[in-house]
Each structure stands twice: as C-alpha cells, then as structure tokens.
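Q: Structure for this?
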Amino acid sequence: MSTMDKETVAKVARLSALEMSDEELNTLAPQLSNILGFIEQLSEVDTNGIEPLANVVDIDLKLREDEITDGACVDKVLANAPEETQGFFVVPKVVEQES
Amino acid sequence: MTDLTHLTIKEALDGLENKDFTAQELTQAHIDAGDAAKDLNCYITQTSEIAHKQAKASDERRAAGNAGALDGIPLAIKDLFCTEGTQTTAASHILEGFKPQYESTVTSKLFADGAVMLGKANLDEFAMGSSNTTSHFGNCINPWRTEDGKDLTPGGSSGGSAAAVAARIAMGATGTDTGGSIRQPAAFCGITGIKPTYGRCSRWGTVAFASSLDQAGTFARTVEDNALLLRSMAGHDPKDSTSANKEVPDFAAAITGDAKGLKVGIPREYRVDGMPEEIEKLWQQGVEWLKDAGAEIVDVSLPHTKYALPTYYIIAPAEASSNLARYDGVKYGYRADESELQDMYKKTRAEGFGDEVKRRIMIGTYVLSAGYYDAYYIKAQKVRRLISQDFTNAYAQCDVLLTPTAPSAAFAIGENEDDPIKMYLNDVFTVPASLAGLPGLSLPAGLDANGLPLGLQVIGRAWDEESVFKVGGALEKAANFVATPQSVIKKAA
C-alpha cells in the first residue's frame, strides 16, 4: 500500500498552490495515506481490455459556428475583481522563484 | 385560512389559480416561517426583497392570464447556482461576497416559469460533504430531532435545501448531486428528491465540483412536486456541451399510483455489512408495496458495487482539483494580502478553502500527477465503465432498481468527523448511479426506532425518469408517509 510521507504531501501542496504549515503537513500525511489505501482497492479489479469511461451519456460534442456571440462587457468581467484598474486585473508583482 | 406553508406545490398552484390566496401571501407565509426557523441555518443569504418583488410580479401575471407553470411558488436555491446580483458562495470563504453578473440556466428557467426565490440555501463547501458540516457559514440543522435533543445533520451536500423543504419554510428547492448530494439529504430530512440523468439539466452557471458527475435536481415534499420542478429546470442548453438535446417529457403524467407492467430489480450487492436491520426491513417492505402495486420483482447483480466509492474518490477529487484551480484571488472572490504573486495564490487558497476541500484538491492533484495518472485516474475510469456496464446488464432484466438511499438515518452533528472515509461511506448506495449518470429518486418510506425518517431509492435507465417517477409515485402512495419534523409540529401546536 502506498503511503504519503510528509515530503510527498509538501510536494503535492506546492502543485496544488496551497500554503501549508508543518503542523498541517503532519496532520494530512496519515489522512491522505488512509484515503489512498481506500482507493487502492481498485487494483484488485481486472480491467484488461476495458476502455476508460470519460463521458457517461451518449452525447456527441457539437461544434458551433466560429463567430463572436459575446463580449464588450469589461465592467461585468471586472465587477468581482479584488483589484482592478483601467480595464485590467491587478496582481502583485511577479518574481521568478526557484522551485 | 389553512397554513400555506403546509401545502404541496400542486395544491398551491391550484389555490393561486382559484384566487384562494395570492403569490404575495404565499411568499410572505414562507418568509415568516423562515424567520421563525433561523436556528436551522438553512440559508446563507435570505433574499426576501427579491422574493417580494417576484411574488408581486407573479400576481400581476396571473391577473393578466399569463401565469407560468410554477408561477408564485417560493423556492430555496442551493447556493451553488449563480444568481445575478445575489451573493453566490458555494459555502466557501473563497467566494464570500461574489456577486455573479449572470444567471445560471437552471434558475433562469425556474424564474421564467414564475418561481420565487426565498434565499440561497446552505450546503457543504463546494458541495463536498455528506453532512453540511463543511460550510464556511455554519452547520445547517436537520428539523428532525431524536428524544435526546441532539442536533442532527440534514445530510449533504444539499443540506440547506432539504432542511428548508422539510421545515416547511420553502415549498421546494434546487439541489445538485455529484455522488448523492440530493438523495442522501432528502432521505435524512424525510422528503423527496431526484437527481435526473446526467445531461438532463444544464450545468451552466452552477459552481463546478466534478464536471463529469455534477447534475442539478430537485427537492419537494411529494413525488409529483418534484416532477413539476424538474420539468421546469430541465432541457437543452447550448451553453453546456454535455446538456442533452432531448425533449423534456411531462414527468408528472407518468405518475399513475401503480407500477403495473414494470420490472423492479433488487441488486443483491446492496445488502452491505453493518446495515441496520430496520433499513433492511424497510427495503423488504418496499418490495412488497411494489408487488401490490403491480410490479414484477427480479433479483439482479451489480458485481462492481463495492468499487464504486473508491472509483468516485479518485474521479471526483481529480476533477475538483482541476475545477478549483480557477480560485486564485485574481478574477473574483477572496484575495490574501501578499506582495508576490505565487505567495498570494498559495495564501489565498490556504485561507479561502476549508479542510475537506483542501484534502480533495490534494488527493486529486496527486492522482493526476506525473507517474500516477494511469495507475489511479485511468484505472478509475476503466472501473467506472465496468460499473456502468453492470447497470446496463441489470437493465436487460428490469426497468428500475429499488435500494435503500443511505446506510443510516440522520446522525448527530460531529459524528463521523474523525475519519474522512467514514463520512464517505454515507454515499455507498448513491454513488454507483452517479458514476453511471443514471436518474435516482429518494423518497421517505418510514421511520426508524428513534422516530427519524428513512429513504428508499429508485434508480432508472438513462433518460427514463418517467419510470422512476411512476415507481416513486406507487411507493409514495403505499408508504403514506405523513410524519413531520418535531420542530414543525411544535410550531403548529
């Protein structure tokens, strides 16, 4: 059975863009390991030759005409922005980080 | 005048048409009942002002002879449906204060038919939970109580919707169901709810949890009322590529009070270890009721049932981790104060999401990450096909399936919180149909020894909600469930 150690949890937290304290990592490691153990029951199932199922109902994805159906609503797009100016979202400065 | 809050939707529509009362009186009665039941915390946001306006307009339409199919009916709207200009939170801190600039397709269809919105109903955060205890806006309380007086959960995730309808503070409600989030709370609150076939209702404007599973549905106190609500909500929407271009039948017309000509399958794998005897007994009672109603009973097998929950707990978190990537503190919602972008993202999400949501994002991110994608996610999609094929095979022998809705009655708030998997087991009977995209209805069929309601579930073929409603109607007639929550009885006395 796979388990998630603290380092793996820290890596997944980084991939998930979630800041986590040491304490949280310690709490989550056994919880997530438990859940992993639970989902790993699936390894018992023989799935040789079975196609993965992504879409449960028989619906063909339709294409629509490539035309403009929407737009010119900058105010609505920005209405809920935590910070905006002159028609743009404002974000904190971007600094490259070592990862 | 009779207590307007005890009418069914059908009775209320007749009463409005006969001018026994107005939509404004009907709405006011429900607002008053809601104010008196605030301790249940059914609503995250009450929208009484909007309700008054809508009810007034409804009375005017009816006077002019232009009343719609649900004109003047006051409803609770799960706070996962975007409502234009009204805060929509998904019960998460990260969306606190978010005011959508558009209306979800489901709510716009209901409003086009004249429905009135009483408020945005409480739920588990991002619909992730089975007890409504993960809401950032506090627990919702089940109007049913046991003698020891402990607060019980209404189930989840659509806990506020179910509790509001059970407490007679709304005539009906919208819900969403990803793994049981309509059927389990309907069972816990002693009311009826249906998750239709995946693709029956548009997902456009509904906050996404797991897109291949999420489906909108309804709550009400009768099978027929659910049929009326669903007909209004359902239908093709070009804005949702998975919404089906199929005609919406008159679901209510399928309810005949009998089950003649239908074969009802009893899946043997649903007899799970540790299921209380009274649930087993009620299930058997349901079989007898349907025999008496003219149905033929057949034993069927769904051999992959035990793998449904582990399959679900790969697929749903995987889709959730992708869907919830959009909450980054830039475009809408909560933003943490940080001077650098990456730090802002991480802190915003750390402070904005609750523990259960974080757990699911983490599991989802892990099963989708390099090296694990095939072993977990693709494997789960393969087992999902086997589960779906089980149902197809069963439906070669029968038209619908009859099962219990949940493995227990409503439990006390705080129970099952020590271990996430214990909480997940609540959905053992509802998740398989979700994975297969099938319609499922839960209706109250009896009380347990503690006086709490227990539900039975009817699962149908894809697009055959009509057989589900027919069998549900026959069960409803036989069960004659008239018990009401203690809080409602006390108020009436």
